[in-house]
UniProtKB/TrEMBL annotation, chains A, B:
Gene3D superfamilies in the cross-refs: 1.20.1050.10, Glutaredoxin
UniProt-recorded name of the protein: GST N-terminal domain-containing protein
Organism encoding this protein: Rickenella mellea
Domain annotation GST N-terminal: ranges: 8-94
Taxonomy, superkingdom: Eukaryota
Lineage of origin: Eukaryota, Fungi, Dikarya, Basidiomycota, Agaricomycotina
PROSITE patterns named in the record: GST_NTER (PS50404)
Length: 240, 240
């Protein structure tokens, strides 16, 4: 075992859920790098990461994914920085960022706003998928962020439907732009899968794991493109 | 002469100004494809393009750039479609879209909102750079779009300053993401110049041509990155 991947456990049997950690897990499996998951409940992330000496990410918060590469001693935070580190450290494995990290960062800066307000939609259904040890922390942080009770954060109803319509319009836009590549270049960067596919699949598999009910319509959008993306990347989501 | 490029003339000696046509001009020169510009004043674009049999672009409007490739008989509208056509039709020339058109379309869908409200800022200083034959058409279309007199569309003052600050923040963001590539991969797609550079240079050279005064501060932003981009792409803006 050479790399430890830190992730948050879930009540879904045999599954993780964190979209950002899934990006790193897919990156590790795609490269065929031996690794093992260490599970950390939400309230333990900051203390465990401080203890490890990991850097905080955006907004000076301690988050996952973090990897500890035991063969180099390096501890890396932030999914894109991890992808860059893996490409640089293991140059003989398939490249995640063949055109550099800049365009992957730009792709995510385009993709994530396109699927807004997906994160807001997922908080309420995510809650029961967490272990009780994470409940209080999750509720407090989400209620501060949403400025309302978790139960009032887009519960079923017309407002929630309107938000899903926005997600659909965003995915329509992404699909329309990617369709310019034609059938022989179905991937974001053309002919082969790269980290950009793992960015999209990380966010979308989150929906599928958390709520099959919410995923059902998405799986049919854009001629089944998103369902196919999840199928194509499934083998890289194996939990080690 | 094998390709005609349709563009809008300007009072700036020896210069064009249209940001979208500059993208195509840079593409043609980068590929070393022989071409000649045919100048069309604003009110004549739609009749001339209908006469040619060119397709309208977004919103069913007739716009430039349009190219007429006399060696194939093809008439192509829309700068990205033209880049794709040129890559496909002249595969032995340097590639504009080595990773396909999808990521270029996504890059532009990220870049253009990042530099908003640049188009609104440029309309008033652009007016005197047009020939009188385009004045009435330009004024009418911009006043309908801005819902105010052209002279009231961000004239000098605090509101205009605030808008430039937004442009600066957007360019800071783009520069920050591209900086992830490091010094050995300074371009959007890594090691070599592609159409993405022409997208940025097309929009930015527009500012420089229309208003040296507005360009002066931008040329210093992000360690002179944008000035360097214009210098590096200058040879591709030769007007044939």
């Amino acid at each position: 075992m050479t790399i430890t991947l830190y992730d948050i456990p879930s009540t879904v049997p045999g599954s993780a859920f964190s979209p950002n950690v899934f990006k790193t897990r897919m990156a590790l499996n795609y490269k065929g790098l031996s690794h093992k998951t260490e599970w950390v409940e939400f309230p333990n992330i900051a203390p465990r990461m401080k203890e490890l000496g990991a850097s905080p990410t955006e907004g000076m918060q301690y988050t996952v994914p973090v990897i500890h590469d035991h063969s180099t001693g390096k501890i890396i935070s932030d999914s894109l920085d991890i992808a860059q580190y893996l490409d640089e450290t293991y140059p003989d494995t398939p490249r995640l960022l063949p055109s550099g990290p800049g365009i992957a960062a730009i792709f995510e800066s385009f993709f994530l706003p396109s699927i807004m307000p997906l994160p807001k939609l997922m908080q309420l259904p995510e809650f029961p998928k967490l272990n009780p040890a994470s409940h209080a922390f999750f509720r407090k942080s989400r209620e501060e962020w949403g400025k309302c009770k978790l139960e009032d954060l887009l519960p079923p109803g017309p407002e929630r439907e309107k938000c899903w319509l926005k997600v659909k319009q965003g995915l329509d836009k992404v699909a329309g732009l990617l369709d310019k590549n034609g059938k022989d270049k179905p991937f974001v960067l053309g002919e082969q899968i790269t980290y950009a596919e793992f960015i999209m699949a990380g966010w979308l598999v989150w929906v599928k794991i958390i709520s099959e009910e919410d995923w059902a319509p998405i799986s049919t959008w854009n001629d089944g493109r998103w369902e196919k993306l999840l199928q194509m990347t499934e083998k890289y989501r194996t939990i080690c």
